[in-house]
Structures
1.
Amino acid sequence: MLVEVRRLPRHVAIIMDGNGRWAQLRRQPRTEGHRRGSDAVRRVVRAARRLGIETLTLFAFSEQNWDRPPDEVEALMSLLREFLVTERDEILGNAIRLTTVGRIGRLPAMVREVLDPLVEASASHRAMTLCLALSYGGREEIADVARRIAQCAASGSVLPSDVDESYVSKMIPSMEFGEVDLLIRTGGEQRISNFLLWGAAYAELHFSPTLWPDYGEADFFDALAAFQARERRFGRTSAQVRESAPSPSVASHVQS
Ligand code: FPP
């Protein structure tokens, strides 16, 4: 598959699904699937950085994942800590900004003590933003914003007539990096699972059958090439899109 590097999606988000099934197929504990899933995270972060993707948001732990068996939650938190420790130099050395969305106040101290300093140390980096969605839920995020707006309205600091789509967008934490252009889900299921509900409103969706621990650069390139073959209309007609389209660039390509 050919990827045209001048027409990359700006913001790619990934639902990394299939770790448990990967392990079960090999009669291994689910946590082994998550461990191999961390290796896939490394591969995809590297590929995205190399290509020049501006923002990569990864659904690493949902608000609902807290309900999983305690030993699985504990293993996921340990893997997250391990990832942050082992990738620290690579993140800082490659000018990657690490950031988060979600209720990170719920994360254990052993994660926060490595996460917070890395978020701070990388805050001025501009080569790529790697956003980890942690203890994240799209509905929860929107509900939190609704509560804040209601408080502002109650205190008189905002008028109900000022609350429009653009106002709400500015309040949604995961919108800091703009709308999602491409939303990838691995593992064969075709659901959004409460991920980036606001920002993915016009995202192109790509569902890959590959279980996340097996996901690699070639799968990622396939998703990017599929994105580039789509026509994004945002409610307009094809003719309107063609009229407003910039003339095709002389392409540079990378191949998987
Ligand atoms: C979904 O697979 C995956 C998760 C709930 C966790 C994702 C975590 C990682 C990829 C590793 C740790 C993260 C980082 C950033 C280092 P599932 O367990 O629901 O799979 P299944 O549908 O096959 O059961």
2.
Amino acid sequence: MSETRVPRRRRLLVCEPRHFAVQYAINPWMRPDRPVDVPLAQAQWRALIDAYRAHGHTVETVEPVPGLPDMVFAANAAVVVGGRVFGSLFKAPERRPESVPYDTWFKSAGFDVHRPEAVCEGEGDFVPAGRWILAGTGFRTTRQAHREAQEFLGVPVIALTLVDPYFYHLDTALFVLDDGTGATGQNGGTGGNIAYYPEAFSPGSREVLARLYPDAVIATREDALAFGLNSVSDGRHVFVSPGATALAEQLAHHGYLPVPVDLSEFHKAGGGIKCCTQEIRS
Ligand code: ARG
């Protein structure tokens, strides 16, 4: 079955964890009294970048800024669809300044950046899934930002309510396995598929997900707590936390190839593989 899964090369933006630290607590994972091993974090991050490149993906970097310890979580800086960059307005005042270096990077790479009026945190809560965008709310990104993103990007935005503070961003509870666009980037019309942890969502949002994705891979709480849903899939390879053992088995069963990458130091800040990875969709 894995022969039928076709990877699509991605353009990814990342930020080296040179100034990574846990200095404040804006989610339940963060404990400023518990030290981060920065050299280990750098080695783990480098292994992720090496894994992306080894699988054919293009990786670009934004220069880290001292005093912005969460800047490594590149996914939160924007959501990019069809070459349109919808920037972020972070909820936490500590993270707001991150928008400046990211917006500067996008501008120098030739993109216009839309500055949102409402609080939103990029791909942390906006998950492009082929024909639509799944959008989390409840902890960070607001419903007003969902409307703003739909208007700017011209793609239907489907709101999903998160209810568990450990899964405060949509990308901690759900990821896209396959966006249904196929190897060429053209709409294959399959609708794609996702993996998610249902209990992270309100009852109504669970129903929405069940309707949209009857064949989804359903993860356990253990998978989710191991940051297994904070994964990146290229349609064939899934860069996934090695702690999510049950999930990896399911992925293999569905014809995907799990590529384990351990970002345990980043879990201390409430982040994992996807959080460290911004996808630039042209
Ligand atoms: N400490 C960061 C925060 O709470 C972690 C962000 C993780 N990123 C993500 N895409 N979930 O904002």
